[in-house]
Fold this sequence. Notes:
alpha/beta
Amino acid sequence: MASRTLTTSLRRLRLRLRRSTTQIHRQFTSQSPPFDPPPIPHHRRVVVTGLGMVTPLGCGVGTAWRRLVEGRCGVRSVTPADLKMGGFEAEVVAHAFEQLTSKVAAIVPCGDKEGEFDEDKWLRSKDHKSMSRFIAYALCASEEALRDANWLPSELDEKEKTGVSIGGGIGSICDILDSAQMICEKRLRRLSPYFIPRILINMAAGHVSMTYGFKGPNHAAVTACATGGHSIGDATRMIQFGDADVMVAGGTEASIDALSIAGFCRSRALATKYNHLPQESSRPFDCGRDGFVIGEGCGIMVLEEIEHAKKRGAKIYAEVRGYGMSGDAYHITQPHSDGRGAILAMTRALQQAGLSPNQVDYINAHATSTPLGDAVEANAIKSLFADHATSGALVLSSTKGATGHLLGAAGAVEAIFAVLAIYNGIAPPTLNLVQPDPLFQDGFMPLNAAKSMPINAALSNSFGFGGTNASLLFTSAP
């Protein structure tokens, strides 16, 4: 009897508590005013004030640009030493080299001469144990870009409004291969404590941030071959939304190693017909193309809010006017034949810029020298730009004939080439364009030699595995 009375009392207590809680909630919600809408961010304009590059054409913006315009090529034959298999027996290295179907690559020239990447400075310093090659490339290019922009702030508030957006496609595969070998040989205790920091793609942005004390956004996009484009576009948005006044942005890659080359060989993506003629192997838009040439390097821009740049008297190369993104939603490596993904990315960049297709003077195409990809992009450009393309007024080229395909760094390096085309009034050429694809006709034809011309608006395309697309639209300095 007592237990029944206790149970009944507990039920009544729970009911009263529930009613009381409901009444309090109703009273609170009826008396609390709704939040005002969030503030609408003021659209801030973004300009490019600094450039830095590490490329197969050379280290440094001046060297790379001059060689590009001159029609020089950064592709060469691969040697067994390029496979970075120093810990393996000579017989294993020789066998791996023999098995590769593609034996050409676009490799950054190293040394202590002008235009060469100084490994002693960037990879053999006291801090090199925590840095792999793709990180070192980012530090080298960032230093050049920051000095070019004359932006090396010492005040805390300036550092807090400066951020970093540097991505990569693959990371350090050679470190992974070396570490896997240690497991196979039961030498796991010799694994470097820096192994993880050396392979993490965001560590390129992290090291740049730590080197200069930048406390703004610290961001790393990883979108395969569209990484560089997305990194610059994302950084632009961060400035537009007020997250930063200055951003160090771009992409970096160091994938010339046994496993990376072998992986792309197995996917049948690389050029194989021209192993005996390495400088002719990357041939965007040409009938003889049979795959891309794997490359490495880094491209970095200093992006800045326009009034911030003007106030300090910074040199302005160009304005970042539009950033378009899309997804193919079709296949892991192949674009759909209708090119709708590319069309959407370019259209969205134009819409954001407030420009019409006939106002674009130059397009730096993604065209990697693959049979399908080049044709799909060319048809997408022809579809979107219509009469402007076929009249010959739109100038088109792919600089991958000179640099190979830099994977995660490609979009950033090619965006810099687009900016330099505007700044210098020169459209760079497409190398090895001997017999253009039959889809090119009338006035629609890629450049096969550099062309001096006024360029007020330039588009840079980047498309990656997984169907991810980015288009950046730059215009001349305001």
